[in-house]
Amino acid sequence: MKAAISILGMTLALAACDAPTSSGNTPATASTIRVAANEMQVDTLAGGAFQGRAGSAWTEAEIATQVASLECSGRKPATITVAPAQGGFSFSGRC
Q1: pLDDT tens digit string along 11-58?
Q2: For residue 89, is it left (φ>0), alpha (ψ between -120 and 50) or beta?
Q3: Residue 76's pLDDT band (boundaries 50, 70, 90)?
Q4: Sequence ranges of the domains in the chain
Q5: Is 50 within 8 Å of 42 (Cβ atoms)?
Q6: 68 or 4: whose pLDDT is higher?
Q7: What angle do CA 57, 59, 60 make, to 5 degrees?
Q8: Which of 9, 35, 39, 54 is 20 to 30 A distant from 28 in Cα terms?
Q9: Dihedral of CA 76/56/38/83: which sign?
Q10: Which residues are the signal sequence here (predicted)?
């Protein structure tokens, strides 16, 4: 019984460690997440959509190629928007 309670407590503690936040209880968004120059962060959204950030070492073409591989099963995204952002690029689109 004691072990079951400890495991339950650990599960609850881990569940409390939610997604990163930018401040307080506000979930982090693509515009608030910082990435290193050579890093890319991609979030998969519903309906084949995606969004993310890439560091300053990436080019727009490299971002589109990587997203095609990671999110669109190797196919070119139907839409993708890449825009300069603090420290690199932000992007979003749909497969």
Answers
A1: 334 344 444 444 444 444 545 567 899 999 999 999 999 999 999 999
A2: beta
A3: very high
A4: 2-94
A5: yes
A6: 68
A7: 145
A8: 9
A9: negative
A10: 1-15
Distance between CA 83 and CA 90 in Å, rounded? 5
Predicted pLDDT at 34: 79
Contacts of 37 (CB under 8 A, 6+ apart): 55, 56, 57, 87, 88
Q: What tokens were used for 46? A: 């519903």
pLDDT above 50 for 5: no
